[in-house]
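User: Hey, quick favor. My workstation is busy. Could you predict this chain's structure for me?
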Amino acid sequence: MSDGTRHPDTLAVIGGGRMGEAIVGGLLESGTLHAEKIVVAEPSEARRADLTAEYGVRCVASGVEALPASMVILAVKPQVIDSVVADIADELAESLVVSIAAGVTCLRLEGLLPLGTPLVRVMPNTPALVGAGMSVVSGGSSATAEQVELVRMIFGALGKVIVLDERHQDAAMAISGAGPAYFAIVIDALARAGVRQGLPRDIAQTLAVQTMYGTARLIDEGDLHPEALVDGVTSPGGTTIAAVEALESRAVRSAFAEAVAAAVHRAKELGS
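Assistant: No problem, here it is.
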């Protein structure tokens, strides 16, 4: 594969789980790659059948069968990535390798790969399933700027992408990678609170989901600081300030800070 930022000639996705599927679906939907250029390695026969039926991509049972490929995305969990890489390392010398395993450093993976193999680390998140993902990209020691840009382009088919120095990956993961769980908890909590106040569950959830979606767009597209938005909807002696004070009394900000710190700590454990 050339160091240029053209599309990869062939793409092997090792792992056909939710993120592997999101990557395949996003690339096909955006027209970035065609199905005949993609192969997915997935041990589950039923899962292989589903992916082939849905996307028309070739699916195989093992990583070795999927190779060689000009780009290889390791879409497997950090607990198994060492064994997965060990099985296919001999086939990767001519590939650009991309890992989406949380917490697993480029240095650790480079020790398992043929010397000089270009490696790029990426942390995507599950909203990639609907084209609204947030991916963080970091190049390894042998990856060129052009190769990092190619990976940025590939994951751009799934939503927004930022390129960061790898030292920031765990902190970014704790916000965007784990963040969908935080926000889902908030939505569920709001919906349950609405039910407690007499709203039907479906109505309460619609109100919570659309309000979170609209608020995110307002902050993003309006280039607003979140506190400015809080101030903008909080009138003296009104309902919103009463609600905000109730949240502050329960140390909501501290709870999120602790959640992010816990995720970072666990990522470092998984990567060690």
